[in-house]
Design brief:
Helix content is 55%, strand content 10%. It has helices at 10-27, 29-51, 72-79, 88-91, 99-126, 131-136, 140-144, 149-179, 201-217, 220-248, 261-278, 280-300, 309-325, 349-359, 378-394, 409-419, 441-453, 488-500, 519-536, 552-559, 577-588, 605-610; strands at 338-341, 365-372, 400-406, 429-433, 457-462, 477-481, 509-516, 541-546, 565-569, 594-598. Helix 14 (349-359) links the parallel strand 1 (338-341) and strand 2. Helix 11 (261-278) crosses helix 12 (280-300). The chain is elongated. The model is unreliable at 468-473 (pLDDT under 50).
C-alpha cells in the first residue's frame, strides 16, 4: 500500500486494516466468509496475470541460492506463516455444517493447492528475472506480470484472506477454551456468545488487542519467526496426539480420513527438527511454555467429557507390564502388595497410614470395605468407592479402593483374597486391624488360618490404646523381636526397614532384640546378629537381653515400653490358635502400637534380604 500510495504511513494503514477486518468478523462471520470469494478472485487474477507476463532478461535458474544470500532456515521461518491458513477450517469447525467431512477435504485441498503454487512460483520467477533483481526488488512480480496492478490486488487479497481467517478462528478457539474451563476463571467472559449465531465478540475484541500490539511492533522479520514457533508447536502437538491415538487404536478414535500413526510420528519429528534448525533456544523456550501449560492444566483437575489419550497409554503399558511380569515372583524386586481390611477409612485411619508408610508411593495397596449383603446396590458401591478414593487423595494417600458386600466381614475377606487381583498383580499381604471382639475371636482366628493356607502374608496392626497424637517426624524407635532369619524374621525385618524409609520414620533407629537364657549364650548371640546385619547390610542396633529366669512377657514389657512401633512374629496356626491369640493379646497389653507378622509359608523372604 505504501509503495502504491507514497503518502500513506505503513503503521496507520496496518492498524486501519486490522480494525476493519475485526469489525467485519464481529459483524458477521457469514459475511466475512463470503468476502473470501472476492479475495480468491483477486488472487486468481494476479496469478493469471503473472503467468502471462514476459521475462525481464535472459536468466539462469540458481537452484542452490547465491553468494551472500540469507540462510535457508531463516527464510523458512519468515515464510512459514504464509502456509498456516490450512488450519482455518479446523478453527471454524463449530460453524461448519459437516466438519468431519469438510475439514479433511478442505485441508487437503488447501495443502495441495498451496504446495503446487508455492513450488511453481520460485521456479517461474527465477526463469523471468536474474537473482540480483529478485533480491533487490520485492515487487518484481509487478514488473513481470501482464497487468502489474493485478499483483497488488493478489498481495492485498492474500494478506486479507489470512487476516480474516485468523480473526475468525482465534476468537472461537478462545471461546471454546473458556467454556471448557481451560482458561483461568477471570477469563471466563471469553466464553460468552452474541446473537443468533453465538458470535464470540468478546473473544474477537481480545484478539484484536493482541493483534494491534503485534502490528505496532511493525517488523515482519521479527514477528514471523515467533509465529512460526507457535504454529510448529501446534502442529507438533497435533501430530503427537494423532500418532498416539492411531498407535493405541482406541475404539473411540474413528476418523473418517485415516492416516497411519507412523506418518503422524514422522510429522511430529519433522516439526521438532525444523524448530531446532530455526532457533534451538526458542525451541526449548516453546517446550517450557507447553510443559507449563500442561502442568497448570493438571493442577486445575478439569473434568473433561471427551477423556484424553493418556489413559490409553497407561492401559497399553499396564497390559505390557502384566505379561512381562511372568509367573514366578522375583525376590530381587519384591515389595508387599497390601490388601488393607480397613472398613471405613475415617474410623481406622491408623491402619491406612501404616500401609502408606510401608509402601511410600512405590508399592501397591488396596483399601477395602466389606458391607452387609443388600445394604448397597452395585451403583452405590461404585459411588462409595469414588468417595473413599477422593477422601484418600485429599489426605495424600495413593491407594486402590474396593467395596464388597458379603453376609459377614470374614466371608467377604476370604472372597477378596480369592478373587481380587489382575494376573500376577494380586495382593500377597493382608493387613488387618486387631480384633477386640471376644465373641468373634474364633471367626477372626479362622480367617488368619485361611489366609495363611492361601499363602498370603498376614500383618495385624494393633494400635496402642489411648495413644497420644504425636507430631510428625517424631518417631525414634522401632523394635523387632528376633526369632531367627527364617519364617517370620525375614519378613519382619523387611517391613521394619520399609517403615524406616518413610519420611516420618527416617530418624528412627531399628533395634533387633533377642532374649537368651544366660550370659554365656549372649556373647554368641551378639556375634551372630552382628555378622547377620553386616551380611544383610541392615542398619540396626543389636540388643541381646539375658532372661536370668524372668518370663518373656516381663522382658518384653520392660524393653519395648519406650518404642514407637513393635514387631512380633506369630506362631503357625493350629487347632488351639484362638487360645494362642488370646495369650498374645495379654502379652502385649499396655505396649505401644504393635505389629504381628505371619509370613506366607512358600515364599523365601531370606532371598529378598540376601539379593544384591
Amino acid at each position: 500500500m505504501v509503495s502504491a500510495f507514497g503518502f500513506l504511513d505503513q503503521l496507520y494503514v496496518a492498524l486501519g486494516v486490522t480494525v476493519l477486518v475485526a469489525v467485519l468478523a464481529i459483524t458477521s462471520a457469514e459475511i466475512a466468509v463470503k468476502a473470501q470469494y472476492f479475495i480468491m478472485a483477486a488472487i486468481a487474477l494476479s496469478l493469471v496475470s503473472l503467468a502471462l507476463g514476459a521475462p525481464l532478461s535472459d536468466t539462469q535458474v540458481e537452484m542452490w541460492g547465491v553468494p551472500q544470500g540469507e540462510p535457508f532456515w531463516q527464510v523458512f521461518a519468515v515464510f512459514f506463516p504464509a502456509v498456516t491458513g490450512i488450519m482455518a477450517g479446523v478453527n471454524m469447525s463449530g460453524d461448519l455444517k459437516n466438519p468431519s467431512q469438510s475439514i479433511p477435504t478442505g485441508t487437503l485441498a488447501a495443502v495441495g493447492t498451496g504446495y503446487a503454487i508455492y513450488m511453481i512460483l520460485p521456479v517461474f520467477l527465477a526463469s523471468r528475472a536474474d537473482a540480483a533483481t529478485l533480491v533487490s526488488d520485492p515487487l518484481v512480480m509487478q514488473r513481470i506480470a501482464a497487468w502489474g496492478p493485478a499483483i497488488l490486488l493478489g498481495v492485498w487479497g492474500a494478506t486479507l484472506s489470512s487476516a480474516i481467517g485468523s480473526i475468525l478462528g482465534a476468537p472461537r478457539v478462545l471461546q471454546a477454551l473458556a467454556r471448557d474451563g481451560v482458561l483461568p476463571s477471570w477469563l471466563s467472559f471469553l466464553g460468552k456468545g452474541s446473537g443468533a449465531n453465538d458470535e464470540p465478540r468478546m473473544g474477537t475484541a481480545v484478539t484484536l488487542g493482541i493483534v494491534i500490539a503485534a502490528v505496532c511492533v511493525g517488523d515482519l522479520n521479527l514477528i514471523a519467526p515467533v509465529l512460526t514457533m507457535f504454529f510448529l508447536t501446534t502442529y507438533l502437538v497435533l501430530n503427537v496426539s494423532a500418532g498416539l491415538e492411531g498407535f493405541l487404536n482406541s475404539p473411540s478414535f474413528r476418523p473418517l480420513f485415516k492416516v497411519h500413526w507412523s506418518l503422524s510420528a514422522l510429522g511430529a519429528l519433522g516439526c521438532l527438527g525444523v524448530m531446532f534448525l530455526i532457533n534451538p533456544i526458542a525451541t526449548l523456550l516453546a517446550g517450557a511454555i507447553v510443559a507449563s501449560i500442561f502442568f497448570w492444566l493438571q493442577r486445575q483437575e478439569l473434568q473433561s467429557a471427551w477423556g484424553d489419550v493418556r489413559r490409553g497409554i497407561w492401559m497399553l503399558l499396564l497390559r505390557t507390564s502384566l505379561f512381562q511380569l511372568g509367573n514366578s515372583p522375583d525376590a530381587k524386586n519384591w515389595r508387599p502388595n497390601f490388601l488393607v481390611l480397613s472398613g471405613s477409612p475415617m474410623q481406622r485411619w491408623g491402619l491406612i497410614e501404616f500401609a502408606n508408610a510401608l509402601s511410600h508411593n512405590r508399592g501397591l495397596f488396596t483399601v477395602t470395605s466389606i458391607l452387609p449383603t443388600g445394604s448397597r446396590g452395585v451403583a452405590q458401591q461404585k459411588d462409595m468407592e469414588a468417595t473413599i478414593s477422593n477422601y484418600l487423595l485429599k489426605r495424600g494417600v495413593q491407594a486402590l479402593v474396593r467395596v464388597l458386600t458379603a453376609p459377614d466381614p470374614y466371608e467377604g475377606a476370604e472372597r477378596l483374597v480369592e478373587i481380587y487381583g489382575l494376573g500376577q498383580v494380586m495382593p500377597d499381604t493382608v493387613l488387618m486391624g486387631n480384633s477386640k471382639d471376644l465373641e468373634s475371636r474364633d471367626r477372626y482366628c479362622n480367617l488368619i488360618t485361611r489366609l495363611h493356607q492361601a499363602e498370603r502374608n498376614v500383618v495385624i496392626f494393633r494400635e496402642a490404646e489411648a495413644e497420644s497424637p504425636r507430631p510428625r517426624r517424631s518417631y525414634r524407635q522401632i523394635d523387632v523381636w528376633w526369632g531367627g532369619l527364617n519364617l517370620n524374621g525375614s519378613l519382619m525385618l523387611i517391613l521394619a526397614d520399609l517403615l524406616r524409609a518413610d519420611i516420618d520414620w527416617r530418624e528412627a533407629k531399628l533395634y533387633l532384640k533377642l532374649v537368651v537364657p544366660d550370659e554365656t549364650a549372649a556373647d554368641q548371640a551378639r556375634h551372630n546378629l552382628d555378622r547377620l546385619t553386616d551380611d544383610l547390610r541392615i542398619r540396626a542396633e543389636l540388643s541381646v537381653l539375658v532372661a536370668n529366669g524372668r518370663p518373656f512377657e516381663a522382658i518384653l514389657q520392660e524393653a519395648s515400653s519406650s518404642a514407637d512401633r513393635v514387631f512380633i512374629g506369630m506362631a503357625l496356626p493350629d487347632d488351639d490358635f484362638p487360645g494362642y491369640y488370646e495369650r498374645l493379646q495379654a502379652r502385649v497389653a499396655g505396649l505401644p502400637s504393635t505389629v504381628f507378622v505371619l509370613a506366607a509359608p512358600e515364599f523365601r523372604f531370606t532371598n529378598v534380604l540376601a539379593e544384591d
